[in-house]
Give the backbone structure.
Amino acid sequence: MDFSIDDRTLELKKELESFMEEFVFPAEDEFAAELEALDNPYQWTASKVMQRLRAEAKKRGLWNLFLPGEEGAGLTNVQYATLAEVSGRSRTLAPAAMNCAAPDTGNMELLAQFGTEEQKKRWLEPMLKGTMRSAFAMTEPAVASSDATNVEMRIERDGDAYVINGRKWFITGALNPDAELLIVMGKTDPNAERHKQQSQIIVPRDTPGVDVSRSMEVLGYSDKFNGGHGDIAFTDVRVPASNLIGGEGEGFAIAQARLGPGRIHHCMRAIGMAERAISAMCSRADSRTAFGKKLSDQGVILDWIAESRVRIEQLRVLVLKTAWLMDTVGNKGAHTEIQAIKIATPAAVEWILDKAIQVHGAGGLSQDFDLASSFAYARTLRFADGPDEVHKNSLARRELKRQRAESGCD
Amino acid sequence: MDFSIDDRTLELKKELESFMEEFVFPAEDEFAAELEALDNPYQWTASKVMQRLRAEAKKRGLWNLFLPGEEGAGLTNVQYATLAEVSGRSRTLAPAAMNCAAPDTGNMELLAQFGTEEQKKRWLEPMLKGTMRSAFAMTEPAVASSDATNVEMRIERDGDAYVINGRKWFITGALNPDAELLIVMGKTDPNAERHKQQSQIIVPRDTPGVDVSRSMEVLGYSDKFNGGHGDIAFTDVRVPASNLIGGEGEGFAIAQARLGPGRIHHCMRAIGMAERAISAMCSRADSRTAFGKKLSDQGVILDWIAESRVRIEQLRVLVLKTAWLMDTVGNKGAHTEIQAIKIATPAAVEWILDKAIQVHGAGGLSQDFDLASSFAYARTLRFADGPDEVHKNSLARRELKRQRAESGCD
Amino acid sequence: MDFSIDDRTLELKKELESFMEEFVFPAEDEFAAELEALDNPYQWTASKVMQRLRAEAKKRGLWNLFLPGEEGAGLTNVQYATLAEVSGRSRTLAPAAMNCAAPDTGNMELLAQFGTEEQKKRWLEPMLKGTMRSAFAMTEPAVASSDATNVEMRIERDGDAYVINGRKWFITGALNPDAELLIVMGKTDPNAERHKQQSQIIVPRDTPGVDVSRSMEVLGYSDKFNGGHGDIAFTDVRVPASNLIGGEGEGFAIAQARLGPGRIHHCMRAIGMAERAISAMCSRADSRTAFGKKLSDQGVILDWIAESRVRIEQLRVLVLKTAWLMDTVGNKGAHTEIQAIKIATPAAVEWILDKAIQVHGAGGLSQDFDLASSFAYARTLRFADGPDEVHKNSLARRELKRQRAESGCD
Amino acid sequence: MDFSIDDRTLELKKELESFMEEFVFPAEDEFAAELEALDNPYQWTASKVMQRLRAEAKKRGLWNLFLPGEEGAGLTNVQYATLAEVSGRSRTLAPAAMNCAAPDTGNMELLAQFGTEEQKKRWLEPMLKGTMRSAFAMTEPAVASSDATNVEMRIERDGDAYVINGRKWFITGALNPDAELLIVMGKTDPNAERHKQQSQIIVPRDTPGVDVSRSMEVLGYSDKFNGGHGDIAFTDVRVPASNLIGGEGEGFAIAQARLGPGRIHHCMRAIGMAERAISAMCSRADSRTAFGKKLSDQGVILDWIAESRVRIEQLRVLVLKTAWLMDTVGNKGAHTEIQAIKIATPAAVEWILDKAIQVHGAGGLSQDFDLASSFAYARTLRFADGPDEVHKNSLARRELKRQRAESGCD
């Protein structure tokens, strides 16, 4: 187990930290204000601030860091993890400025791994350049879609085309008209074996029958900075058969492959977000006095600060270990750890944000600090890629199996 | 200790329940939509739906129930508590429809108790009729205002007037232009004894120098339904000396008197809100299936439902006991219990809402259910009238004192 | 809902409090030392201290208070609850001194309610006088006996006798040879309907085939003060058919009837125990200084004290409400509340004891204070009459049913 | 950061695992029974089982693994950590069998680091051979001794001797008469600067004036397997001045140096203990059925298993990181992490044990499983080397300082 930071990562980290200090943090408020003033406030790609930062990130070599292999920066998960944490300190601006924001990252990985040459040329290349955006349409309003067998979206073969019908919601990024690419999960064969019913398919946003009706809020936030969370109806949407990603029935397996790296990126960025909250909590506690004592001298608040540090330290090393396992034994070998960090991260980060808010008083819940919107984000992580409860159930069953094997009782 | 529901309360409860079923619940969505369409979406008093409901509530005798004495419905706290819980099931609509919404309730109580005849005539009467609204300006952005000695707002005598300078924020209701009355807490004598420095004064909203600049969000919500939470600058605001409520230096004592009933109302309404969330959680759990089993047959979710019921049952009886104490030994005699429910309610209700959201999946965080906005409200309760930590500290010190007295070690 | 303390209860409470102050508290250490010195340290009935206290309690009319009806003191549950709390402050001594200690109380109730005249004469009368003790044999080592259908103990009819085979453990009181009466739960018909398989039968302790082999410890404690927790083998134990309590197949129903009052007594005594721990926590916090400040001036400890008070206040009123429901609508009508307090009490009390221990430093875990042994007792409450999880599951299913009925979806 | 297991550790681990399987686990019950039968049940060194195991451990090279440098096995903290976890699976037997049990380990480290040649020869050598045992006398009954300035024990110079007066308790190992060496912490100069008042001194157990009066219980356990926790009075105890360890006033600094490795060993062994509990929980859940389903198919129990795994994984990597820091930047550089694991370990391990107990039913609290005694041990860890609250306070203050430095506000 070796999570040392090598020289290349160290250099990138310095570069990124200077980019954050000089460009990202100072631009946050301007970016938010600019979005509100846009004709379509979800079209963050149209923001001048964003365009300026993206140019700067590219120039500094802070571009596509998330993507392993030749098409991306070629970093390992351990290498990228450290950088993702830094970028997570400015959740709304930095990842997008570096072309490292979800859901584009997952979609690029997916196309890089499973796309045909044609699909790569048409969709992956512009995304890597940053001239096109995308969304991933998985969650459905009518069913518990954490159980993939519940998915009701139909993808039916009709000649040399597929016809798609159904409804998806919480489709992050979809309110941005520049999200030209929709990757859609649905069932090609509802009667096949449990995990062979699903397929994934490319749907160009401008295909007739695609209707993005509204943005789903999360705890009052519409998340314009990343294109909102669309509610999309698909009515007799017809796309060429060649738009299928992988083969029929491979949708579930592809989705699983997509989730590993996505999760670890989410976790590392969330740790960065939590570190920023701890800084804010300390600095606020130092600057306020109540009942004759600075908040930073009051026992309960010291307890929160300590507990925050203890939680985040445990979490970070486990995320790094997970990254290292993914690098060395692959996503499958890191299955338990990937689930473990998916379970542990939202809990720890939400707790820390809650306390940071409390130290800030009512202001902590307002638009004047980024704590409340970060809390909302942390809260959504308890649903992202399936609710905690699904992951816990699965992890526990694997633990039981392992214990049976070890005790010879299997 | 007798919390029985008497006949009058029982009748009112039936009336209120029928009002809720026939008028309130069906109008919730319409009300929200209407607000968004208003020129000033914070001016909820202009809503047709609201006006219709207020007329109906008045007709049914469901008006000013919160106010004891001749000026109001004359109910005891125990009597009103049961009714407040019912109205809390529709937090955004029912209390306002019944002229029982904060902060007007607290302001009416305050004027009824401490106002001069002139003040009552000018301000209390129209508020009781429902033709005027108000706000209470206590919290300040620059200091930990839970410690009243920190308040920086100045109220300075100048001839037969007072001149007010300072800034207040999170002033609920203040974005509604019909909130003509602002009751402002500030310091008339910063050098007086700790709890004699503060005074309260009436400031008509249209006084020159009053500038309501924006609404403070709470977890992404702007709470238009109750007039938002204003950020207000007071610059050389001049009001007649007769606008003072009580005498100079009585502001803190008056604020304390105001808080008791306000807290118990908050708590009872929050219990109603939690009961609605439990219903929603049960109904959702019954309607969704994952991994071959209805959610309502899954152990973890059953655990949440049970835990929710256990928590709310404990909480309700303590709130009722507190109401009974207030009725029988007065607010001062109920001091510990008032603080106890102020501490216990947000914790229990927030927990229940969190679980209800989790059972609803991502949708639970969205605008399609009232759970997320209710969560935001429950979260603000941990700050309302001072953060939990202040109340706990105070309650603990009183407990220690009591224990010392009992053991003869005082 | 009326939990007022009436005059009779008030008088009894004063009497009991004076008994506690003058006789019980001063005798605790002496009692513990005397037990250790006995030939059989589990034979608490042989203790001189205990005999002295029992005589005094009888003289003061503090005897059999738990038992309603003519055979006992005839108190309601609300009346007894207040007294049980007071006696719970000296868990090891007061209840037994007042002939109000489990498991005798439950057994006396059971015999009073379901026993034949002959059974009452032979067993109930001496128990009411305090000259005989008893045990209730329900839990089995080999199965999850919270599910009554799992019970493996066999009670087989053979002519005019029943023959009993099986093993029971955690049989409180059984190490005391004066526990002449064992009430045993087993199956008379394993093929009957789920809740008709079980019967209860009287087994005199000296019947051949009864073997009490050892005492089960709980967290290191052997609980000599109440006769330990026996591990008992029953091998071809033959008793007259007339020893059956109620009819064949009524064992489950009788057990249910037995549990309601038992639970509420446990809860009230546990509250008394927790109150004593809060007093100890406060007094210790006042007497120790660390890092320049008294513990009672340190924020985290103040937080614990406040939280303890808030939890115990909620719990007590719910227990009182439950008692009131049992008095007015019967045990069945109070089913949800009885389960709710069974779930809530151990959690609250264990938490408080844990904090009280922490305030005492390592000494809090030792024999020098009663906190650690009280913690062990609170911990066992999470198993008593079935683990929390069983109660939560059952309560939640009833809640779902109720919600379905209310929403018309049943 | 590199926690890889090197070849030497891997070999030792295999050796240790085989020792555990073949010798340790099979001997646990026999050891416990043998202790009870000894004249002095605290004299575990007299146990035949122990002597057999110690010989075997020595033969296998599993001896003094804890001690770095020439005098011990020369392992790094990272290397030893993995082995300590394995030995922790049999807390009562393995560490002592390997001469790696507290408090001897800390005392040997202390003597190796700070002892004179004479002290080493007289005390360290026999301890390394395993022919002598020791105790460390720090905690006092009358004061909060986590604050070293509170220590009341006096060590006064008198000619060429020191005279010691005071009382210590919870002195682990002291009931074993073979604990010939007592290292005592007291004040040589109560008026010196805060952390220069204390000194440490060697007191041979048989010195006149040393009175070991009784063993302090922890949650009902007397911990005979490691010599109990003595209550020791020191009355005019006279020892040669050459018995001082280090110089006068260095006691606090020496104590600090002693704690780092001790803590990490405790943590790793506690993780081993928790892993054993998880195994037991899984195996029990697989073997019991309630209400028609195996416990291992019930949601709440699956949740506990998952949560246990997630907690232990986070904890282990942080402990390993801490070990690595101690190896690379020293105990001082690892200060925050050492405190973090001291805070995190008891919380996680206690939680896991509590759930493992719950899955076992009442039996889980009894002597039939090692869960209850392990719980008691985990509970004591919240006091060992100072209560959690002290560590949290200190960690938080350092965090605040660091944040101030980073933000340039120091």
